[in-house]
Specification:
elongated; two-stranded parallel sheet; Methane Monooxygenase Hydroxylase, Chain G, domain 1; single chain; mainly alpha
């Protein structure tokens, strides 16, 4: 996660992170409390990586090397992720 979705992000790295997290989530079938906690961490990490991939600008602590500038015209909005949505 740190390598692909760390402080300096690119589309390629974020797409790699999303792919890895999707695979890890698909393989997980939690039975114990620790496994549920791990599944929850994977879910949060996937949401963070996916949101960072969609946001094509840099703002605050989110820096995209391939989009180094702010884009208020397109990104001064609220973004909502819905479970199960593409």
């Amino acid at each position: 996660m740190w390598r692909s979705a760390g402080l300096f992000r690119t589309r390629e790295d974020l797409a790699t992170a999303v792919e890895i997290l999707d695979r890890a989530s698909a393989d997980a079938s939690p039975a114990t409390a620790d496994e549920w906690r791990q599944r929850n961490l994977l879910t949060v990490a996937r949401l963070i990586a996916g949101a960072a991939l969609r946001r094509e600008e840099s703002r605050g602590g989110h820096f995209r090397a391939d989009f180094p500038d702010r884009d208020d015209a397109r990104w001064r909005i609220h973004v909502v992720d819905v479970c199960g949505a593409p």
